[in-house]
Amino acid sequence: MVVKGINKAAVVEGKLALFDRLGGEKGIIAIVDDFTPRVLQDPRVNWQRKGVKSGGFSFRRKSNESVAWNATDENLAILKKHLVQFIVLATGGPPHYDGKEMRSAHAGMKIGNPEFDAVLGDLKATLDRLQIPNKEQKELLSIIESTRPKIVTQR
Fold first, then answer.
1. Which residues contact 36 (CB under 8 A, 6 or more apart)?
2. Would you say residue 45 lies in a domain?
3. Residue 1 maps to a domain
4. Does 31 fall in a domain?
5. Domain of 99?
């Protein structure tokens, strides 16, 4: 079987990379487009970080300054772009990511394990809704899970 547009560098041991099995960039954009409104509306996640104040020393914020994130059109576009770029890169797609490093991007947000778990649940709901096969779901969720130590600061 010949598949047009396959990233030859992503073919490992005769198997397609997760990136390709998710439908390439178009498939990942569909995942992000479904996931984003779901996670933003989930009160368990508190994506907008309402009521969260920074603590300690940070070059980006003063101590006790709000870390709230506003869902403006511009912020949503940047969020979606960086989510797509991260997932593309992490699943074996073309290496292009212009977002911040994971730890610094989430510094001061005081994200806890229950919030991270809720994000994983929202992503799983998206993957189910888009009928992504179980094997690919497990691989993608495992990749996202691997970012927990860089994101969660409230244990």
1. 76, 79, 80, 83
2. yes
3. no
4. yes
5. 8-151
**pTM for the structure as a whole:** 0.81
Instruction: Please tell me the predicted confidence (pLDDT) of residue 47.
Output: 82
Please enumerate in sequence order all residues whose Cβ is within 8 A of that of 127, keeping only pairs 6 or more positions apart, or say none: 31, 136, 137, 140, 141
Distances (CA, A) of 20 to 6, 7, 29, 90, 141: 7, 8, 13, 12, 16
The CATH number for 20's domain is 1.10.490.10
Burial per residue of 17-54, b for 16 or more beta-carbon CB atoms within 10 angstroms, e otherwise: bbbbbbebbebbbebbebbbebbeebeebbbebeebeb
Describe the crossing of helices 73-90 and 134-145 by its angle, rounded to 10 degrees: 110
Please check the confidence at residue 21 and state whether its pLDDT lies above 60: yes
- DSSP-based three-state secondary structure for 1: coil
Q: What is the pLDDT of residues 87-110, one digit of tens each?
A: 999 999 998 888 888 888 888 788
CA-based angle 48:124:110, to the nearest 5?
A: 30
How many domains is the chain partitioned into structurally?
1
Distance (Å, rounded) from C-alpha 128 to C-alpha 20?
18
Q: What is the pLDDT of residue 55?
A: 58
Name the residue with tokens 């600061």: 153
